[in-house]
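Quick log. Single chain, no ligands specified.
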Amino acid sequence: MDNAIRHASGSPGSVRLSVVQDQTRGTVELHVIDDGGGVPEAVRTQIFEPFFTTHHLGTGLGLFIARELCEANGASLELASDADRGHFIIAGRSDTCLLSEANVAHAAN
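-> predicted structure:
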């Protein structure tokens, strides 16, 4: 969220969260989307590497640690292919997710 907020325009609705549940596949996805300029093509393959940063005060550990935590808990963290905005997806199995169907429906609205 910090990255999304930092890179977004700051206007209302500039950062969105959405939850998508696929009952057929048994998965749930959390999408974090901002209206910033997206991740430049030149660094897309590097952003999850430890100590890689594009921010002058950054440590380059945020996305690396976030991905490691996801993987340690049976989930994944990926950068979506949207070129014009920031869009990250955390995906995991819905049978290990604590969201109820009512919460998922509410979050999607």
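The longest strand covers residues 15-22.
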